[in-house]
Amino acid sequence: SCVTNPSLSTCMSYTYSDTSITTDMQGLCSVVGNTYLPACSAWRACMTNSSSVGSSTVCNKLSLLATVCVNESSTSTSCNNYKSLCSTTSMVSQCSTSAPLSHLPTSAGVSGALQAACGSTTTGVCAPCQSYWTSNTVCKVSNLIELYSQYCYGNSGSSYCTSFNSMCSAYPGLYLCNNVSIAAYSDCMFNPTSSSCMNYQYPTALATSDVISLCTAMPYMSGCTIFRNCNSSGFSAIDSSTDLNACNPFDIMTTICTLDTGMRMMGGCRRAYNTMCAAGTMIKECSNYTGMAVLPTTTQANSLSKSICTEMTMDGCSYCDSDWAANKTFCSYNDLVVLYSYLCYSMPDMTQCPTWKAMCAADPTLFLCTFSSNSSYTAGPAMMMYFNTQTPFYLLWKTWTPKTPGKLCGAFFAMFFLTLFYEFCQLVKANLEAYEKRILASIRRQKDPNSVSNPKGVVVAEVGGCESRASNGNTESVNTQTFGLHPTLFTIMLDIARMIMAFITSGIGYLLMLGVMCFNVTIFFSVITGFGIGAVLFGRLKMRIGSDACSLSEAMCH
Question: Cystine design at 207: which of 165, 249, 345, 486 (Cβ 3.0–4.6 Å)?
């Protein structure tokens, strides 16, 4: 690419993207120790409101990056791409059109000039830098260039203000050259206790960049799930009734940096948020955006999901099984809080779900509680292991989930008629057995019309609960049904028919059992009603078959 090999002739028209520049500048200007750089102060002002900065040249993003990397001789890794892109052999024309801001004073020059101008004065604009100057180091207060500009605005003739005068000549209208603008742009990001910061707003672009940084490092954080859903479908994907600002990047930062246990010391929080919203801050934004307080923390979502999946295997557990098996602190599945909510939505009475229930009681429209069709994740019906009337519910198949009264009525009749069919199959099976007895008896009479002797007490015929036994003496002359050891075509066909009926009746029987085990009251009554009606429709026919079989057996025994 042109970043790594900019000497190619094809790179002449290449443009280093604004997104990449923003990432680099955030890496440079948000790191503790670099916030005092004049180019970083200009960067923050441009990101807040570029039209009020007063100089489009100063707000050229690549020029500001070049100023930090070249004029300040920064060795930060955030300068690596720029130094490669704009090396001495570079063919990228953007590098020459967006050169470093040569008239913007360096941090060392500003600190030295202000220290010399202050002399023994320790008040006013000189006060913030005293501890640094005492240690013979560059003043590293975040609004260093603003302090210097405030001094020179009232003392422009001072020999210590040469850099200030040069800057204002090169960039007419620059906010640093106007006392009113200087006050308006006092660096509230790092000095938030000033009353002038009351209406300060952290630039949305910077807040978004900070959230991206946080969610790149730990994408499975609860707040990052909110961020991704907001980016994909907007607020409608969240549908929170308690946090109407849920999709605001600053609100998401509050959710992660303040409300999510253990995340406050991440780089994206330390860049600006922690300082801006520390105790005593005057920035209204910190109190206006309170974050999604009902959301389970990342630690809660992880530990509770792990506990559930340890107790039983459920849909979704496979996303985390390998991480938990490896004893990792967190499951790396990006939507960890969605997984926890899905598990509790499926079985809400588990002991690990009070946190989820509390969230949904406080914010019932939240997508983690409803799993609406608009959400990026859809859960199945809840599973209840006791009789209930809840809809929807799983019925035999994952796709059969009655949700409306009409569909529930359809499920009732489906299970009812399946039960009737089961009873009918039982009748057919009984007919088959009786038919076999009749045929075998007929064959026996044709082959051996005379009686044969059998030991006393041996069952010689048993059909439908009837039996004939020898009762007089040790032997009794009776007709018996004998089954040859060598199967005939007829007996093979009967065995196949018997196998088919056993397959059908056992399959339907187990389906009915599993249907009742969904514990839905409607389905339970549909099955037992089917058995009741089936007994009325087919019971008498079964008894008749049994009676005919008994008559046949008795005739064979006399």
Answer: 249
